[in-house]
Amino acid sequence: MAPRSSTRPRGRPRSRRIAGSVASLALASSLLAACSGDSGKPELVWYINPDAGGQAAVAEKCSTDEYTVTTQVLPQDASQQRIQLSRRLAAEDPSIDLMSLDPPFTAEFADAGFLADVPQDARAQLEEQGTFQGAMDAATWEDKLVVFPFWSNTQVLWYRKSFVDKTDLDMSQPVTWDQIIQTAADNGGKLGVQANKYEGYSVWINALVSGAGGQLVENADKGVDLDLTIDSAQGEDAAKVIEDLASSEAAPADLSVSNEGTAGSTFGGDAGSFMVNWTYIFHNYDETDPDVADDIGYTRYPQTVEGEESRPPYGGIGIGVSAFSDNKDLALEAAACLVEPENQGINAEMTGNMPASTAGYDYPALAELYPDDLRQLFQESVDAAAPRSVTPYWSDISSSLQSTWHPPASVNQDTPPESQDFTQQVLEGGRLL
How far apart are CA 373 and CA 371, in angstroms? Predict the structure, then answer.
């Protein structure tokens, strides 16, 4: 092969020249940024989960003459939010000042040293405004408060009043999963749940096990040596609920890919009967289908075992301050402002994600948007909720659950022991997800 001719000038190789140019540009940019920072007030960047504008509104409200709070939106999927944040924090990226964190990732981030501790005066503020104990527990790692509880979500059992009127089910009394599955199946109804292979399915499994009086993990403080308790009588009770629904006429056709949105569509359709879903769903049909909006009833989350008080799912967002922020003290001050009761109320009004404190529920607009008994139900449900296990290894546990309990049609009484064995191997490094 003949040698290629080249028009490259003699001297430094092109790669070195490009690298030198990039370095010069980077230096110039950093000098400009430094000059800009010197001449203006700091900008605190808050990485938020997607919503209807509530977080941006309170960010603007908490901006001061001393600093500005701006927002950057994370991906929709909670797992992708975790991946993006954890990668950047592992690199000690100083451009993240504040972040909205899902409860199951709080322990992981705190254990890795990514989060600044919440000051004692801020903790006192949170206690004074009546922050729910479940929210405080979910925000705590190794006896230290590491995020600021912002909103606390929970699920209730929603039902179509017109559907229930055709049955003999008494919704003024506690109901079980068995009852609503059978009632829906016997009367041509479909039941809306979250059973896709994602975090929402782990939330449902956790609530079912907890509602039977059990838990997925014990001794979480032992780190990777924690004790898995998936293989238990309570795990069998949870598996039976999923098996019963998956094999019944009440199962929607999209059960194995169902999420919050598809459950809402099932509930709003002609076969709508019952649905478990988060607080925001109450106003989901106001503009799109007012007839459905007028037909919504609500009650406590179903019991896994008759007579055993249900443990509704717990969700929400805590605001963490990065340990690597160049403006950590200002970010801690801003976080305390963001979670003040009025700001929790503003966010709830705009997004339907309810406050993490009793004082937040006193925000006047919420009384106009939600009936008194529903606001009371939300608060009672948060108090009784079952948070996911507070452990740095929750992501591995959740992914293992999704791998072994999905699809729902495959679940049976062998699922809990098989799931526990698989999860144990994953934690010990013997299996890969």
Answer: 6
Residue numbers of the domain that contains 172 = 154-313+389-428
Residues 170, 284 share a domain:
yes
- Structurally, the chain folds into a number of domains equal to 2
DSSP 301: P
* 307 and 352 part of one domain: no
**Cα dihedral 268, 271, 274, 276 sign:** negative
Residues 90-116: what's their mean pLDDT? 97
The one-letter code for the residue type at 382 is V
| Overall residue count recorded for the chain in this entry | 433
For residues 329 and 307, state if they share a domain. Answer: no
Cis amide leading into 416 (omega within 30) = no
> Does the pLDDT at position 33 exceed 50?
no
Report d(CA 155, CA 312) in Å as an integer.
6
Is 32 domain-assigned? no
What digits encode the pLDDT tens for the residues 319-351? 999 999 999 999 999 999 999 999 999 999 999
Q: Is there a domain that residue 12 lies in?
A: no
Give me the chain's average pLDDT, please. Answer: 91
pLDDT at 244 (0 to 100):
98
Neighbours of 247 (CB within 10 A): 15
To the nearest 10 degrees (0 to 180), the angle between helices 394-405 and 415-428 is: 140
Burial annotation 367-402 (CB, 10 A radius, 16+ → b, else e):
eeebeeeebebbbebbebbbbbbbbbbbbbbbbbbb
Helix, strand, or coil here: 157? Answer: strand
Helices (H), 269-393: 290-294, 328-338, 341-351, 364-369, 372-384
Report the distance separating Cα 191 and Cα 139, nearest Å. Answer: 32
- Helix (H) / strand (E) element for 150: namely strand 148-160
Q: What is the tens place of the pLDDT at every residue in 104-154?
A: 999 999 999 999 999 999 999 999 999 999 899 999 999 999 999 999 999
Task: Let me know whether 143 and 47 are in one domain.
Answer: yes
Report yes or no on 256 lying in a domain: yes
Q: Are residues 283 and 412 in the same domain?
A: yes
Is residue 27 included in any domain, yes or no? Answer: no
Distance between CA atoms of residues 404 and 301, nearest Å: 25
